[in-house]
Amino acid sequence: MFEHREHTLYVRSFISDWLDRHKVQFIPIGDRIWEFAETRFEEFRSAELIAGELEREGFDVQRKAGGIPTAVVGSYGQGKPVIAILGEYDALSGLSQHRGEPRPAPRESGGNGHGCGHNLLGTGALAAAVGLRKAMERYGLPGTVRYYGCPAEEGGGGKGYMVRNGLFRDVDAALTWHPASMNFILSSSTLATCQMYFRFRGRSAHAAGEPHFGRSALDAVELTNVGCNYLREHIISEARIHYAITNAGGISPNVVPAEAEVLYKIRTPHSEQLAELYDRVCNVAKGAALMTGTELKIEFDAGSSEIIVNRTLEKLMHDTFRELGCPSFDLEETGFAAQIRDTLTESERTHQVPPELRHLPLTDRLEPYKPSDEAAMGSTDVGDVSWQVPVAQCWVACSAIGTPLHSWQAVSQFGVSIGHKGMLHAAKVMAAAAAELLLRPDVLKQAKDEHLRRVQGRAYHCPIPEGAVPKPVRKS
């Protein structure tokens, strides 16, 4: 049993050195997942690539974990504590882009791309799990490290399905990361979210000769959108309502559309608020059906809960990050990042960027740890895991300062050495922080006690209703 701080330093140094020596093992994995660019619940090749590597490294692997076709769980060690490292590998639709290009250059027209860097996220988490496994073997560390290959973070709520199916019941804490353009610890909650299809069915008719025989499903979609746009004035300011018309009923203006569909996504700071807003938005759609004489079918698509913050784990991760330093970049990488920044708007270059960094292509510093009680204006299914166990997340520079996620600029950078360096550094931070949890049961207890305090008196509202099944991205 390690009892002194110097032992933690030995373990951290071992992990960092091992990952530096074996980076060629992981960089090709991240690049292949970048090339696969598979969207939610269809990440078959990405999941198999990860599963195969885990098996080669001595992990016990569950494919189709929890009955989810593209979920993977790999475990090494035995007994408590069980430390989870969360990985993702799903891409985004419509973001195809050649790697290393400082201009829009799709690899495939309308194809997919890793605009959120999940090729790096999943591989960096894999590298962290393997690096920690090597340290556990070398130093006889107690407990279990478990890699979670989580599909469909992008609008699919994969972790919600994994939680609902019991895959986190025995986990003591979880760590993860995300590619970014700066280095920091996520120290705020996120927005709870769900999305649902409103599918209207009416009756077609000649739009000029007998329009009175028709019942327009497209009118119902438009009235839903108008009603929800008026609703925005009467909801809390932190909530969000988004929509996309997924079926406009055809391309013939002289036919009354008999069917039409719209996909809605709503967000609120707390899960309890989400249920109320969901009912209000659904009532608008029901009213639109009444006004147009159409039938309405509501189909749940996906959802995720807000993050329950854990300051104990956040501080541990920040201290680990600070002691390991930050990724450094060479002149070629800096020059490419400068070209990327030239394609950004002034608002993008400066959005949430400290003034002293706004003239730089890349950053090599760690931002101060500043816990916030306000929710970040985004959503992630990491939130569902955080309701079950303490969770912390670091964000690591993998792109030019100001690069927006879900953009061609992000796809271009997440397939080259800038992204590789951030990915490997994230692996060091996660593995070293996880090792400390294995070595310091007092810190793990503090994190678990804090988690209990934060969820006490609150019920977990699983965003995945009973009977719902994972759904791939609609192709139409």
From TrEMBL:
Pfam families assigned: M20_dimer, Peptidase_M20
Protein name: Amidohydrolase
Superkingdom to which the source organism belongs: Bacteria
Lineage: Bacteria, Bacillati, Bacillota, Bacilli, Bacillales
Organism: Cohnella boryungensis
Residue ranges constituting the Peptidase M20 dimerisation domain according to the UniProt record: 196-281
